[in-house]
Amino acid sequence: MAKIQSSKYVLCLVSSLVLNLISIINLYVGREWNLNWSSKAAREAEAVAAISCSGHGRAYLDGIVVDGKPPICECNSCYTGPDCSQPLPDCAANADGGDPLFLEPFWMQNAASSAILVAGWHRMSYTYTDDSYISQELDRHIRKLHAIVGNAVTEKRFMIFGAGSTQLLNAAVHALSPDNSSLPAKVVATTPFYPVYKRQTDYFQSGDFEFFGDTSLWKNSSDTSMNFVEFVTAPNNPDGKMNKAVLQGPYAKQIYDHAYYWPHFAAISAPADEDVMLFTLSKMTGHAGTRFGWALIKDEAVYERMINHMTLNTMGVSRDSQLRALKLLKVVLQSRGREIFEFGYKTMQNRWEKLSKIVSLSNRFSLQEIAPQYCNFFHKVRPASPAYGWLKCEMEEEKDCHEVLKAGKINVREGNKFSADNRHVRVSLIRRQDDFDLLLQRLTKFVSEEDGGGDNKTM
């Protein structure tokens, strides 16, 4: 009798397990069936990504559609045709813009891990469930990234998100300027400096702050009643120097712009540890179009003023941008930053080496000098790999270097855009490989045509 009951018990147990297994299988199949909307979206994305555009362009999901066909190819500079296969022989090399498209191949190599598919009902609210405008998970990943790279102190710091670091610039100026002062804060920067500092400050000028030019003009000022807000860019845009604050004292406050303080552009010598520090996704992962940046703030009162400014301005950064930034940082952190920074550094160092080699053969042009430096991230002394060349026309009669290069079909950015003289120009090294290859081609031709070519400088 006991054996019969035991057998019945085992049979019931087995039957229960089988039924549960069938239920689980049905549930899984049902869930997979319910996810058909994602399968369709994935197929659409894969179909567009498969359009090759001859390797000289890209097709995008939001690209122009003609007659219901797949989106057309959007060609790189100096290429044309339906599939971007036709080079434009008289096209000028584009070394002007700051688009960090040199990282595009890295993300194509990591297509699967970096892809993201967003439901139509994703984060429809103005705020997250904690009533903030900031993803706490993204905040955590950013702090983890800084700790691994070693380029910024995040402990006991408040974090603010912005639409790129561009939006955070004026928020910081506002927060550091005195309220209801009879004299506005003097906003300054060291020449050559990123032109948006002046343009933004002039555009948003109020009774609280005003742009007052180069920092050196105020270095020896004895007027202690003046309030200063100094932009300190390290590495500097356009010349790659690791700038430091010039003005000191209780009435001098600084905004440290560390957009380029990542291992592919500069040696990481120590964690930045200033009161107000700005960073941007665009120069770290290359995703300028995502429009995402962040600030690390030490003082709570400054943080509160910046938060208030940002809330009144945009009520936070797009939830979609934050989601994409989170996904990208997860990819970066999979290798503890090693893969993307090695890829980026090797690309930039190779480009700087090639540009320097060509310029070294010229009596007409010169470049800024950046010495090799020990990098705590790579654990070695590494040669320079700046984002830009700060090129100078050395001939006395060539006072406008932009026009000189333009005549040779090279588009660059004028020195006066950075409040410097026009003997200097900024040469962008961070665009696509097509752009850089054409730049080298045009510049090599320039140098080879110099008078007395055989007497040019030796390497």
Task: Describe the model.
The protein is of the alpha/beta class. Helix content is 38%, strand content 15%. The protein is built from 13 helices and 19 strands. The strands form six sheets. The protein has a seven-stranded mixed β-sheet. A four-stranded antiparallel β-sheet has the order 13-16-19-18. A hairpin with a 4-residue loop joins β14 and β15. The longest helix is centred in the first third of the chain and has 33 residues, at 2-34. The protein is globular.
Strand content: 15-25%
The number of distinct helices, counting runs of at least 4 residues, comes to: 13
Number of strands: 19
Uncertain ranges: 1-6, 8-33, 453-459
Q: N- to C-terminal separation?
A: 99 Å
What is the mean predicted local confidence, pLDDT?
Answer: 90
Q: Could you state the oligomeric state of the chains shown? A: single chain
**Fraction of residues in H or I helices:** 25-40%
CA radius of gyration is 27 Å
Strand order of the largest sheet: 6-12-11-10-9-7-8
> What coarse outline follows from CA principal-axis ratios?
globular
Structural class: alpha/beta
User: Biggest sheet, in brief?
Assistant: 7 strands, mixed
